[in-house]
Amino acid sequence: MNSNLQMPGAGMRRAVVSAMFLFAAIAASAESDDVLTLDVRRQDVGSALVALAETSGVHIMIDGETGEGVEVEGLKGEYRFEDALAALLSGTGLTFAYVSANVVLVRPLGVSEADAAVPAEPGGEQGGQGGQKEQPREVEVVVVTGSRLEGGDPTARVLSLSAEDIAARGVSSLEDLFRTLPWTFPSITTQNNTTATPVGAVDADQSHSIIDGFGLSTVNLRAMGSANTLVLIDGRRVAGQAGEVEGFANLLNIPLAAIERVDIQLDGASAVYGADAIGGVVNFITRKHYAGVSIKGRKEYSSTDAHASSLNLTGGYGWNRGSGTLALSRTTSTPITNAKTGWTSYDYRDQFGPDYDVRSVFEAAQPGIVCRYNGYPPFPGCAWGSPRWQLPSDHDGVGATVDDFTTEIVPADRIIPKNGEDSTNISFNLHLEQDLSERLSVYADVLYSDHQSYREEPTKMDGFLIPASNAHNPFGEPVVVSYWPVREVEAGVIPRAHVRARSEQRNYNAGFAWEMNDDHTLLFNVTRSESERFGQYFEPTWRRLEADPTHEKLYEALESSDPNVALNLFGNGSAQGPAFPELLKNAFGTRHGASETTSYEPKLRGRLFRLWGGEARYAVGAQIRIDGYSYFTETLGEDGRTVLSGGLAGRVGASPREKVRAYFAEVSLPIVGPANSRPWVHSLLLSLQARYDSYETAGAHGGENLVREVG
C-alpha cells in the first residue's frame, strides 16, 4: 500500500499538483454506504486527507496550494466516506466533487473543477510563473459503469475489482474469478455444461449439448440468467457466444492478462444499457497508458491433474501526446481426473445405504451386454421384453457358446474420466490513443482471442448391431451389443472418444472525444465485434454412410467370420483384433456458429448548471446496433457431398439479423451536498435515466431445418 502526497516545489509553486492515494485493497466507491472507523487527530488538511484515503481506499486529489496553512479538527468514530470528508472540510472553505466513481477532487468553494485543475495566476493568466504558456489539457475518456454521465452515477450499485485485487485472489482465469464472488451463479461453466441437463442449470439458462456447451463459460449475476447479464469490454458490447441468439458472452475469450479493472453492477441497468442488462452488468476495463515492459509467468500444479500455466507480456510506450499499450498472453489448463478426487464408482452403498447403487445393467459394459434385435433397421435396439445376457468377466469371447452367457449382469461402473477441459488460449489486446489538440483525442482498440478445448469422453459402443455372420456371435441371429472397450482403449487398440471445440473472438473499436468547452464533451464510438466457433464430437458409432471413408473397414469387421478380423464385442477385451482407429466417427458432424455485432454511438455529456448540492450533470445520445447470427452443422451426405443443416439459416439461407435503434438520456441533480448538508441530511441526489429501444428483425430465427448440398 502506497500513499503519495505531492506538494509544489519552489520553482513550480503555481503548478497543478495532485495527491493520489493508491491501494491494493478492493476498490471502494466514493459513494459507498460502508462505514469507516476513523481516528484522525487535529492536523493539516493534507495529512488528514492522506489518513482518510488510506482507510477508505478512495483516490483523493488536491491542488498543492489549496492545503497550505489549513488545519482540520480531529475526527473519531464511525462515518460513511462522504460524511467523513464533509466533516473534515467543514469550516475550511474547501469542498469536494466526484471526478469518477472512485476519485474525489478537493477544491476551494466557488471554484469550478476546471479552474481547480488548472489554477489561475494573479492577473488572470494561467499556467505558472512569469506568464508561462497555458498547460496542455488532456482529454481522457474515463470508463465508468452503470452510467454515461461524466464521473458516473453515485446511485448505481457498482463494485470494482482492480488487477491487484484479482491477483490477490490467486485465480488464473476469469471463470475462476467469478467462482469466488457471491453474486454469481455458476450455471454455465467448463465443468457443468457438457451434458443435456447440466448440473446447476436454472430455468433462465438453457442446457446445451456436449458440442455446443463445451468450451463455454458465462456470467450469471443473481441467478437471473446469463442472457440477462450484460458483459461489456471498456463499456462496449461484444459479440456473444457464436451462433447463440441469447447473446451471452463467453468468458473464455476474454484474456485476464489484459484486464485492469472489473466493474460489477448488481442492480438492474436496463434504463442505461437495454433489456439484456436486467440482471446486472459486468464491465471489463482493459489496460491503458502502460509504461515499460513486463513479463509474468505462472505455473500451477494440482494433485487431481488440473494443472494450469500462463505467460503474459505487457508493454507500453508514450510519445508526443499519445500512447500505446499491448498485452499478449498464452494460457493452458488441463482437466480434473475424476478418479484422483476419490470418485471411482457409481456404487455408493457403503456411504448412503443399500438403495444407492446407481450402476446400470442396461448400459454398456465389458464383457458386452447382449439382447435380441428388434428388427427395425432405422432404429435398431433391444426387442421388447428381451432378456439381457453377458459372459463371465474372465471370458475373452473367443469360441463362446450360448450356454456360456448368463442373465446375471455385472453392472457397468465406469465413471466419466475427466471434468473440465484441456485448453490453450492465445490472445492479445492493443490500445492506441492520440491527442490531436488540447480538446480533441482519438483512440482505437483491437482484441483477439483464440481458445481451443479438448477432452476425453467415455468410449462406449452403445447399441451395435452385430450380424449373425460375426465370428464371435454364437446366437445364430443378429443381436444388439452394448460394449465398453476399457482394455482396448488402455492398450491403444481403440482410440478414445473425445470432444473438441475452437472459439475465436475479434473486437475492433475506434472513437473520439471532443471537449467543446469546459462544460460539454462530444463522444463518438464505432464498435465491431465478431465471434466464431467450431465443435466436433468423436465417438464409436456403427451406422456409417457408404460415402464415409471408414464405412468399408467398419462393416467388414462387424460382418467377418474370420476371428482374426471380426470385431469382438462379447468378451472381456483380452482377445480383440488389431488396432482399429476407424471405429471413431465425427458423430454429429462439425458444428459451426458465428455471431457479430456492429454499433455506432454518439453522445453528449457535461454540466448543466449549479444546484444547492453541486453541479447538475447530463448525458444524451443514441445508438444503432446491428446483430447477426448463423449456426449450422456440416455432415456427409449419402452421395459423399457435404450437407449443411441447422436451426439458424446462416450460410445456408437468409442469415438472421436484428437492428436496434436506441435513444438515451441521463440527468443527475444534487439537491443536498457538502455545501448545504445538515446533521440529518448529508447527501440527496436525484438521478433520472430514460431509454427507448426499437427492434427490427429479419431472416430465420430457429425452428428451421434447412439443407443444402455443396462441393
What do you see in this structure?
This protein has 711 residues and is mainly beta. Among the domains are: 10-119, Phage tail protein beta-alpha-beta fold; 357-414 and 460-493 and 542-586, no CATH class; 518-532 and 591-710, no CATH class. It is 9% helix and 38% strand. A hairpin with a 2-residue loop joins strand 6 and strand 7 (103-108). The model is unreliable at 1-32, 112-139, 195-204 and 702-711 (pLDDT under 50).
Distance between the termini: 64 Å
Q: What multimeric state do the chains show?
A: single chain
Work out the strand percent.
35-45%
Estimated helix fraction: under 10%
Uncertain segments are 1-32, 112-139, 195-204, 702-711
Average pLDDT, rounded to a whole number, is 81
Rg on CA atoms, Å:
33 Å
Shape: elongated
The major beta sheet can be summarized as:
14 strands, antiparallel
How many strands appear in the DSSP assignment? 31
Count of DSSP H/I helices: 10
Structural class: mainly beta
Secondary structure topology:
Blueprint: E1 35-40, E2 43-44, H1 45-56, E3 59-62, E4 71-72, E5 75-80, H2 81-89, E6 94-100, E7 103-108, H3 113-117, E8 158-162, H4 163-168, H5 174-179, H6 210-213, E9 229-233, E10 236-237, E11 259-265, H7 270-273, E12 280-286, E13 292-300, E14 308-319, E15 322-333, E16 336-337, H8 349-352, E17 369-372, E18 418-419, E19 422-435, E20 440-456, E21 461-466, E22 479-483, H9 486-491, E23 498-515, E24 520-540, H10 551-559, E25 584-586, E26 590-611, E27 614-636, E28 642-648, E29 657-672, E30 684-698, E31 706-710
Parallel strand pairs: 3-7, 9-12
Antiparallel strand pairs: 1-5, 2-4, 6-7, 8-11, 9-10, 11-12, 13-14, 14-15, 15-19, 16-18, 17-22, 19-20, 20-23, 21-22, 23-24, 24-25, 24-26, 26-27, 27-28, 27-29, 28-31, 29-30
Helix pairs in contact: 1-2
